[in-house]
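Holo prediction — 7TS.
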Amino acid sequence: MKMDTKELTKPTDAQRGVADWRRDFPILHTTVAGKPLVYLDNAATTQKPQSVIDAEVAYYSQTNANVHRGVHTLSQRATDQYEAARDKVRRFINAASSKEIVFVRGTTEAINLVAQSYARPLLTADDNIIISAMEHHSNIVPWQMVCAQTGAELRVVPVNDAGEFEFDVFAKLIGPGTKLVAVTHLSNALGSIAPVKRIIDLAHSHGVPVLLDGAQAISHIGVDVAALDCDFYAFSGHKIFGPTGIGALYGKQALLEAMPPYQGGGDMIRSVTFGKTEYNDLPYKFEAGTPNIAGAIGLGAALDYVTAIGIDAIARHEHDLLAYATKRVSAIPGLRIIGTAAQKASILSFTMEGIHPHDIGTILDHAGVAIRAGHHCAMPLMQRFGLSGTARASFAFYNTRAEVDALAAALHQVREMFQP
Ligand code: 7TS
């Protein structure tokens, strides 16, 4: 995050490439309120490149059939494409086997699956689950539900004033009753990157598995589940330039093998009689019913797209953008950045003195600048900072310094409008 002023005015190689990347995204050339769209709400959902749109259209216009159940040509083709997409997910996160990749609706469903199939059968009233104070509601509520079902305790690792995971407190909270640690890899509200490798190593030294909520991290940080040695990793396709309604849960094979199915229905069985049902092999045991076939194929196309650019090039460009944006908005009187962790990516959350975040968001919309305002589905975190919400600009690799300038100019306008 530290760079001198000269660096901040010099275009980087990545910025020269960004013009090419932008051409791949039709929606980036649209206008809002008569102004060119400046899309800075990537943490909520990302835009889709033409190759992802084409993959879905091609599937529905040339292949559409159900998977795993037809001998006819289209069904076999659909099955091959769906399973090829699973293998793309496996490669993207470096999992050992495609049996470890379960297609789900998204991060939310992945976490609920682990809460109900892994945690619920294990937990007793003497046990606990550990999360952190910077979790999205998706990584809070499923654990509250399973704690209510079993009598287990939910323990919360605090964050410091910069929004950093307090590792020393974590080391004190983990103990013999801890059955799972579930933390976000990258906070959607602050941009803090959690010290996930240290968390996993310490948890494993206590024999405790770790789930990482990768909803945000997946499109900004290279994820290698083998190197991390995490036990579960959850992410959503729509946050990595893929379709909505599709995501993946990675789970270590031995853990998934031992877990009961999450839902019952077609595809997750090997044989059914009214007396007894035998479940299917991994990963189908966790994929009851007709899946989101087109979505999985679209996700595969999105991962191909990101791989072609390279997550390292993406991270470099976004690091530059975040540093530039941080500097530009810091010059605005009364603006306070929320989340100043040393390890940070892609997210700039802030408040402006005397101005409600929703007013900031509405005025920016009139300038064609899309940001999110509110609690970002992280109400406990907002309470930690004594706020009802923040305004949040969140970046993707297709954003530019010119767009950061548009954001800063619109924020200056906001300031002027609210000047007494
Ligand atoms: N976890 C994190 C860290 C997230 O940022 C989100 C979505 C989720 C889980 C849930 O993902 P889903 O795809 O299952 O809905 N975050 C946001 C956001 O920041 N603004 O809108 C959605």
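READOUT: The CA atoms of residues 59 and 187 lie 34 Å apart.
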